[in-house]
């Protein structure tokens, strides 16, 4: 017989005893099976008893191998594939320690990973590609020079689908890769390094995770993972021990959870440290090349592990899952290595790393780190030292920690020799200047392993008095002893604490001291990763070589000193020592080339322009007409103007011609002229204009022309031109005889275009100015404004005032020629309350308003609405509830800022009371009551505050007043009460009913025999209503019913 194949059983084990015997005369083995089972499960135990061994082999009595015996939580085949867990032969699952897998190299076995098995899922969410190994999907695994990449699936090996406890989508983990191992008797570690995954690609807070695991199956394991902890890209570290032999959530899942980590950490290194003696596990993690950290949380820093997890053989490996996220939203995780190693037993004579010492002090914990009492066995005093515990001031150490930084040791030459394992370490020295108050009074060196690492350290100069300073240096120890020495050149060396920790590779990636030759200013925003540098106006930004420094051991691309084109922002990628990166954006701009040519013509006096201002204005041709300067301004803000009525001419602004103005990218420039045209000459092309010439590198010659020309319905147009004479890039009709400020704005984009806008109605504030697009010009190189001229074509009745060219809007626009005066109205024009009796009385002379509301209205919370003068505002505002128990003041502010206070008084109308007794005419009513015995509405009234309020009866059908009393014709004894002629006792039932009560529905009064309207044809035989006039208000109405006297049977 070549192999033994037992069908894998479900998880709940029922013993099967199997006896193997051999007979040399038989060609096959004889099996005697003693079976003890039920229908639920079958699980074998091999005899002789092999305990919990998961892997092994079996031979007959002659030593012939009959194949491997592979046993785990489920039965396994004795040959490849190893059912449920691997496509390999079962004998290949177990790996000897140490296990060290470098995923950047082909490691063989599953997908080149070096792993030999996967955990078997008992409840796969999707059909497996290989039913024999349902937890292995090689299509989701790839390996290259960067490492091993696993694409996650939905589902996980957490909990179970049914039972207690339970959870959805569980016992369904795919690609939990691992190896088999014999559990060591001492401490051992399971480790991996992975690139911090991007959880943002998988939506929701769905327990997406990746990390390491160790266990016997999906229900008995330990894992250490980075797990998504929020809806964005937040994550935390989680250590979890699962034991599904327990039936409550509290006992089945033992966890430790950290707070959220930074999103960008560089690689994450995980390490599970197991202690089979203490039956416990601790988790450790390292971010980038930083210090290894213990996983701690409110639950503590370790978790118990069932002893059975450490018995015999088990599995360990890596995995990733996107748990409950949509199946279409996997995460992709890159692992770079994996290892299983026994923990070396430390030499008791060596200091344990990390090692922290409170110099001259006692045990003290700072930020979770224990600083041990100073061990003077390590102290080396080349010269005698002094230890002190005294306080000092000022003491400016953040967080206090006086028990750590008051104790100190100082001396001229001393040190420490620490027995330590050979290796690389980071050493931090903590120091606080406690005495000196000036630079140069305490200076000392720090040496490590005989090498100078801190030269001429001056605590006061570096940090100040009472401030904590910490130096950090890396050191390599090769002789089993770390030597530190402190040597003073001035006064004494001083230290308060020492830290020796595993070599910490820096994660710092800052750009420091970014400099360009000739720069005017530089601003660095480190959190945002931006640097802004300003160069002088006109600087060529296309070829600059900045210099800068970086965080220790960091590199950058591009490098310092390399030439860059800063016409657009340049991105520098800085890579820290730990491999993490940060992008810095450097923006270099040239300072605005500010220019200003302001010509108001107010300082020359009167005379011909080229004669009284020869250094400012050049008349182009001797034959040209002169321009008289007059002492008549064209606006309130000017006192002189130029008379253009003498004929054609052109005059140039000399200072601009001699010193052209260079444009700056994205910095606006403004060109304006005041024009007043009363009439044109007879020529069809007669016009007046001012213009500037744009000088650039092309063969074209762009212009900006402000022209007042013939055209439009008024006969006069303003026209902007960006090309040749009479060019047209926009027009607007204007009236003759009015002063117009013609303003154009240009902006060069720094490349090949200047965009223009214009207006005839500039406001004092540019943001309030409405601009009209005028198009653009194409330019080459860096453009300049090289010429400005003023000109008249023909003999025109026209003047111009100020001509201004500047990059400063406020120099160009100094007055608003068409401003509308601000409104001064601050009146309340209407005031309304929903409850008011009539419209409020507004007293505009005394700035008061009186409103009356009905009796019973609560004035404590009324909501007025009101209108104001145009442009005015009020406080309180309209529609806001107010307490009018006392007068309320409203402050009304006009558009021009003037203020008026208005007082609003609300009064509640006096109470109106009416007492009406319904009776016959002759009975004397009760005191205070008026009589009603059926008379028509308006017959009687209640007098109140000079007004009569009528009451009485009406027809319901149309509201017409009607007399239903006994005085009405053909109405018998009416409708008044107590109309029984005889005594009440002697009256018939019908008489009692008809004569006792006032009837509203007389049409329903029937005779004694029934069926006939008793009052038919009489006024009282109608359906009536009773009505009373009252002032508006809130009333309580009481209606009394009853018989006259002591008679109570009227129903």
General description of the model:
A hairpin with a 5-residue loop joins strand 4 (57-59) and strand 5. This protein has 7 domains: 1-79, no CATH class; 99-342, Jelly Rolls; 355-502, Galactose-binding lectin (Jelly Rolls, Sandwich); 511-590, Immunoglobulin-like (Sandwich), CATH 2.60.40; 596-812, Sandwich (Jelly Rolls); 828-908, Immunoglobulin-like, CATH 2.60.40; 912-1051, no CATH class. The strands form 15 sheets. Strands 6, 8, 9, 11, 16, 17, 18, 19 and 21 form a 9-stranded antiparallel beta sheet that branches. Strands 43, 44, 46, 47, 50, 55, 56, 57 and 59 form a 9-stranded antiparallel beta sheet that branches. The chain is mainly beta. The protein has 7 helices and 71 strands. GO terms for molecular function: hydrolase activity, hydrolyzing O-glycosyl compounds. One of its GO terms (biological process) is carbohydrate metabolic process. It holds the Pfam family Malectin.
Structural features:
mainly beta, Jelly Rolls, 1051 residues, 3% helix, nine-stranded antiparallel β-sheet, 7 helices, 71 strands
Low-confidence stretches: 1-78
Helical proportion, percent range: under 10%
Ends distance: 114 Å
Number of helices: 7
Rg over C-alpha atoms, rounded to the nearest angstrom: 51 Å
Strand content: 35-45%
Overall mean pLDDT: 87
* Quaternary structure type: single chain
State the name of the first-level CATH class of the largest domain: Mainly Beta
């Amino acid at each position: 017989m070549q192999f033994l194949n037992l069908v894998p059983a479900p998880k709940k084990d029922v013993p099967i005893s199997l006896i193997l015997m051999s007979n040399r005369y038989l060609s096959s083995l004889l099996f005697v099976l003693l079976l003890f089972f039920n229908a639920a499960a079958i699980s074998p135990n091999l005899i002789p008893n092999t305990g919990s061994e998961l892997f092994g082999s079996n031979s007959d009595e002659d030593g012939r191998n009959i194949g491997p015996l592979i046993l785990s939580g489920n039965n396994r085949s004795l040959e490849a594939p190893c059912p449920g867990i691997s496509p390999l032969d079962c004998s290949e699952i177990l790996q000897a320690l140490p296990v060290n897998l470098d995923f950047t190299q082909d490691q063989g076995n599953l997908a080149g990973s070096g792993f030999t098995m996967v955990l078997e899922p008992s409840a796969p969410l999707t059909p497996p590609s290989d039913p024999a190994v349902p937890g292995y999907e090689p299509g989701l695994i790839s390996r290259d020079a960067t490492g091993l990449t696993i694409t996650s699936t939905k589902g996980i090996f957490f909990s179970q689908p049914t039972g207690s406890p339970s959870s959805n989508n569980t016992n369904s983990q795919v690609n939990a890769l691992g190896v088999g191992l014999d559990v060591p008797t001492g401490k051992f570690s399971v480790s991996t390094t992975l690139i911090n995954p991007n959880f943002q690609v998988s939506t929701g807070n769905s327990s997406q995770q990746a990390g390491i695991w160790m266990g016997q199956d999906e229900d008995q394991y330990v894992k250490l993972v980075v797990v998504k902890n929020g809806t964005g890209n937040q994550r935390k570290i989680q250590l979890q021990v699962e034991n599904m032999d327990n039936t409550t959530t509290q006992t089945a899942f033992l966890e430790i959870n950290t707070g959220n980590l930074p999103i960008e950490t560089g690689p994450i290194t995980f390490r599970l440290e197991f202690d089979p003696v203490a039956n416990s596990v601790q988790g450790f993690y390292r971010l980038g090349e930083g210090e290894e950290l213990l996983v701690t949380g409110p639950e503590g820093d370790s978790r118990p592990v069932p002893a059975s997890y450490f018995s015999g053989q088990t599995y360990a490996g890596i995995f990733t899952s996107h748990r409950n996220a949509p199946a279409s939203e996997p995460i992709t995780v890159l692992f770079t290595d994996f290892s299983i190693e026994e923990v070396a037993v430390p030499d008791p004579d060596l200091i344990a790393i990390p090692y922290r010492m409170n110099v001259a002090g006692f045990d003290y914990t700072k930020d979770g780190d224990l600083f041990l009492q100073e061990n003077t066995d390590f102290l080396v005093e080349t010269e005698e030292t002094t230890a002190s515990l005294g306080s000092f001031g000022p003491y400016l150490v953040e967080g206090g920690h006086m028990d750590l930084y008051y104790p100190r040791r100082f001396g001229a030459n001393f040190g420490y020799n620490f027995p330590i394992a050979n290796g690389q370490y980071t050493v931090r020295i903590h120091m606080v200047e406690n005495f000196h108050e000036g630079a140069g009074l305490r200076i000392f060196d720090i040496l490590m392993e005989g090498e100078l690492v801190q030269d001429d350290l001056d605590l006061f100069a570096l940090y100040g008095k009472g401030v904590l300073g910490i130096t950090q240096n890396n050191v390599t120890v090769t002789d089993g002893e770390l030597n530190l020495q402190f040597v003073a050149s001035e006064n004494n060396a001083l230290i308060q604490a020492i830290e020796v920790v595993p070599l910490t590779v820096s994660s710092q990636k800052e750009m420091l001291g970014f400099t360009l030759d000739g720069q005017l200013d530089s601003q660095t925003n480190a959190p945002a990763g931006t640097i802004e540098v300003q160069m002088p106006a006109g600087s060529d930004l296309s070829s600059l070589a900045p210099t800068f420094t970086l965080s220790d051991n960091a590199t950058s691309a591009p490098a310092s000193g390399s030439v860059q084109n800063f016409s657009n922002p340049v991105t520098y990628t800085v890579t820290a020592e730990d491999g993490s990166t940060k992008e810095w954006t450097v923006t270099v701009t040239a300072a605005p080339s500010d220019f200003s040519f302001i010509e108001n013509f107010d300082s020359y006096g009167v005379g011909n322009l080229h004669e009284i201002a020869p250094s400012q204005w050049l008349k182009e041709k001797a034959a040209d007409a002169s321009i008289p300067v007059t002492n008549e301004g064209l606006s309130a803000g000017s006192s002189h103007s130029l008379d253009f009525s003498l004929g054609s001419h052109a005059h140039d602004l000399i200072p601009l011609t001699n010193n052209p103005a260079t444009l700056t990218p994205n910095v606006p420039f403004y060109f304006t002229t005041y024009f007043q045209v009363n009439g044109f000459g007879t020529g069809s092309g007669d016009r007046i204009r001012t213009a500037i010439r744009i000088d650039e590198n092309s063969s074209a010659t762009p212009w900006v022309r402000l022209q007042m020309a013939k055209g439009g319905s008024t006969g006069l147009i303003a026209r902007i031109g960006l090309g040749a004479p009479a060019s047209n890039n926009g027009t607007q009709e204007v009236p003759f005889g009015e002063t117009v400020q013609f303003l154009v704005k240009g902006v060069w984009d720094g490349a090949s275009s200047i965009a223009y806008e214009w207006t005839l109605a500039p406001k004092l504030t540019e943001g309030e100015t409405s601009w009209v697009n005028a198009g653009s010009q194409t330019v080459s190189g860096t453009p300049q404004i090289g010429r400005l001229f003023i000109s008249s074509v023909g003999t025109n009745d026209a003047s111009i005032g100020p001509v201004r060219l500047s990059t400063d809007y406020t120099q160009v626009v100094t007055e608003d020629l068409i401003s509308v005066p601000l409104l001064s109205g601050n009146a309340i024009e209407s005031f309304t309350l929903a409850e008011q009796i009539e419209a409020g009385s507004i007293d505009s002379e005394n700035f008061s308003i009186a409103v009356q509301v009905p009796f019973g209205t609560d004035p404590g919370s009324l909501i007025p609405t009101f209108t104001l003068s145009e442009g005015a505002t009020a406080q309180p505002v309209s529609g806001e509830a107010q307490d009018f128990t006392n007068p309320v003041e409203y402050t009304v502010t006009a558009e021009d800022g003037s203020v008026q206070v208005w007082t609003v008084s609300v009064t509640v109308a006096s109470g109106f009371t009416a007492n009406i007794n319904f009776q016959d005419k002759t009975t004397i009513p009760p005191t205070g009551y008026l009589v009603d015995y059926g008379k028509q509405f308006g017959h009687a009234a209640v007098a109140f505050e000079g007004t009569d309020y009528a009451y009485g009866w009406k027809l319901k059908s149309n509201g017409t007043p009607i007399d239903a009393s006994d005085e009405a014709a053909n109405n018998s004894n009416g409708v008044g009460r107590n109309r029984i002629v005889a005594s009440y006792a002697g009256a018939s039932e019908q008489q009692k009913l008809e004569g006792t009560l006032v009837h509203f529905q007389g049409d329903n009064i029937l005779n004694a025999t029934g069926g006939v309207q008793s009052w038919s044809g009489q006024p009282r035989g109608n359906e009536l209503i009773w009505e009373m006039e009252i002032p508006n208000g809130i009333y309580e109405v009481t209606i009394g019913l009853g018989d006259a006297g002591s008679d109570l049977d009227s129903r």
